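Field log, afternoon session.

UNIT: design team B
ACTIVITY: writing a sequence onto a fixed backbone
BACKBONE:
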């Protein structure tokens, strides 16, 4: 791939005796909408959890090429020490550093944000507060500046509000800005999660089943928002989705997982007629099968 923003090599994830990911290799092109599909239990969410640092992968490498540099995601989460580290002081130093200061916050700082399959908003906060909290990293957190309400502090607060309202407009929630997040409809909460992810200023956004539970009109609106992220902001979107109509319509590239392995990758029209993909979805070979 010419310009891969994300490269995953030999990714493995084991939960006790369960091998959720065997040996996953994939690349995501910068500025694309890439869908990760597969039957239930194929390992899609586990891939997302490894990419975003919610799980520390059992093995492999995840390289994120954002903000003009390359980040090894597994390394910044903090890895175990190895015997040979003592022979490489620089490597040992990096391990100590990331053991002490590493974590998922560094993945977000590197430019990767996500939404969740089960919506995880701050339900007791207002919509706009949810978006301001997401900008905690960019805002002025100086206690003295806050108490004195300095010019710099007010400027940072205004910038955060402007950004929040920009993304509320994109996801069509400006009218709900002061409502409690937990009181909104399911579709609105899904859109708010996307806005919250975007407020962290990512280059890659991972959306875990964003169309789950939406009606066809809401799904169409969602497709428009995802396209807008790519076309207007050059955001790379990595998407897990079971709504095949939506996946086939908006994806530039599709990667298919089954039982923790990548079984196919390519353009939508190629994947739609791929024998192994049809078999994986139907659980058996079926010439008639269509995704
Ligand atoms: N925290 C965990 N502990 C134990 N097993 C897990 C854990 N997370 C995932 N698994 C197992 O890993 C496998 C892959 O699960 P995963 O949720 O990644 O699949 P998926 O493709 O996202 O499925 P779905 O489409 O239903 O969400 C499953 O067998 C699941 O039971």
């Amino acid at each position: 791939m010419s310009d891969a923003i994300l490269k995953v090599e030999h990714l493995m994830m084991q939960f006790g005796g369960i091998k959720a990911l065997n040996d996953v290799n994939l690349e995501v092109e910068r500025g694309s909408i890439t869908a990760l599909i597969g039957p239930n239990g194929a390992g899609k969410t586990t891939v997302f959890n490894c990419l975003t640092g919610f799980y520390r992968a059992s093995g492999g490498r995840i390289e994120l090429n954002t903000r003009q540099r390359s980040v090894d995601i597994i390394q910044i989460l903090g890895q175990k020490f190895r015997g040979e580290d003592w022979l490489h002081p620089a490597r040992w130093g990096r391990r100590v550093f990331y053991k002490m200061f590493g974590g998922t916050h560094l993945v977000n700082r590197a430019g990767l944000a996500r939404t969740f399959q089960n919506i995880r908003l701050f339900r007791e906060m207002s919509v706009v507060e949810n978006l301001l909290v997401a900008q905690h990293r960019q805002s002025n957190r100086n206690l003295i500046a806050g108490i004195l309400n300095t010019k710099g502090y007010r400027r940072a607060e205004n910038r955060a509000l402007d950004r929040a309202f920009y993304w509320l407009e994109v996801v069509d929630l400006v009218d709900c800005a002061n409502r409690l997040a937990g009181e909104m409809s399911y579709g609105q909460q899904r859109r708010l999660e996307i806005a919250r992810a975007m407020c962290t200023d990512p280059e890659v956004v991972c959306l875990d089943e964003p169309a789950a539970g939406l009606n066809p009109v809401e799904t169409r609106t969602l497709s428009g928002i995802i396209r807008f992220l790519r076309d207007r902001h050059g955001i790379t979107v990595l998407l897990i989705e079971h709504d095949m109509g939506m996946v086939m319509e908006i994806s530039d590239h599709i990667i298919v997982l089954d039982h923790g392995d990548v079984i196919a990758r390519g353009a939508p029209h190629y994947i739609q007629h791929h024998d192994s993909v049809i078999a994986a979805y139907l659980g058996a070979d079926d010439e008639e099968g269509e995704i």
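LOG NOTE: The domain at 1-111+202-291 is CATH 3.40.50.300 (Rossmann fold).
NEXT ACTIVITY: expression trials, pending approval
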